[in-house]
Amino acid sequence: MELDKTGLSILDFQQLLDQLIAKSQELFGDDINTEQNSVLGMYLRVIAWLQNIVNQDLEAVYYANYVDQAEGINLDHLGNNYSVSRNPAQAATVTLDFTGTAGTLIPEEAVYSTDSGVEFEMIDTVTLTDNGTGSGLAVCTAQDETGNVLAGTIVNQVESISGIESVTNPRAASGGAEVEDDESYRQRIYLSMQAQPGPTYYGLYTALYSLAGVEQVQIVPNLTMETDKYGNPPKTLHFYVRGGREQDIGQAILDSIAAGIQTTGSIKTTVKDIGGHSHDVFFDTATVAPIYVKMTLKTNSDFNPETSPAVITQAIKTYLNSLIMGDKVVFTRLYQAIYNADGVEYAQVTMGRDKSSMGMSDIQLDQFESAIIANDSDVEVTVDGD
Questions:
Q1: How far is CA 138 from the centre of its chain?
Q2: In whole angstroms, what is the distance from residue 109 CA to residue 153 CA?
Q3: 295 and 281 in a common domain
Q4: Which residues, in sequence order, are CB contacts of 269 under 8 Å at separation 6+?
Q5: Exposed, middle or buried: residue 160 (CB in 10 Å: 0-12, 13-18, 19+)?
Q6: Residues whose CB falls within 8 Å of the CB of residue 37, separated by 6 or more in sequence, listed in order
Q7: Which segments of the chain have a pLDDT < 70?
Q8: What is the residue range of 365's domain?
Q9: In CA terms, which of 21, 90, 232, 316 is 20 to 30 Å from 118?
Q10: What are the tens digits of pLDDT across the range 278-320?
């Protein structure tokens, strides 16, 4: 093992064993028996094995000092040096709209769900107005991204309440996220090195990407005295954000933009500054474009019908998550995700925005549109012969 200007170099098991054998021959003579079935040979191999474990631990400790190589809690310690903490798991939140009999009370902890079984629990108490409508905030019972359901999908009463005729979510649920993985956390540490949260563009991106669940951000400035081609008023910033809780996004924007800067968008949040004064912050969520994929595979014995379809689905999700708003979903990139799965020999694939209109063409996203696989069932995997 050596530490010099080129870094740390450690010996592997065979190199350690060769050193021990050479030292034994130097001390006891060249004819000393060091074969693996000899007493000395077995002893030397045990020592080499133990030293190899120590070397591997030393190497792990050495590389744990660098953001590029650190993992787990060691990466957390490095992130804390830059005041960047790993985002914890978080449940999605959503506003539910109700219709029914005037005066009907909807208590906290009432549960509503999607057709696929994703449940949301009320955290507000709602009383329907004289015209039989009301709205309140609900939180998903699962602390992961499954709660980020599309608009209009929370329509079922898990616990029936007399006087409630319908429930729905006019906007998509947002903010649900699992504990942040190492790679995403690592990228945020790098981003913080370029700029701390603040009024510069890098600073605004840093502030928003630091929020749990935020996956994509696009900022459209209109620095002119005229309304721009997107309909943004003069001298405004228009934030488009995918993921994250609306209240958290509004607070991050207020905390980071310069004084006097106006925001625009269809979503309004009221947040407070450090002095306790309320401000209205406007932004928009990215338009979500559900993508559907259908494939028929010819496979060999290496293909696991129990786990391989899920591996393929996750690989396609990873590809779509790598795209930015307004990007192009390249059809041929799907083959890379599919053929990376063990046991796939041949794939016939179609893709589309709608299950009734599938093809083999690229999909161009609109300027503020983001592609997703909304449900795992939207990727249909059929193995030839099934």
A1: 22
A2: 19
A3: no
A4: 246, 247, 249, 250, 251, 280, 281, 282, 283
A5: exposed
A6: none
A7: 1, 385-386
A8: 289-383
A9: 316
A10: 999 999 998 889 999 999 999 998 999 889 999 999 999 989 9
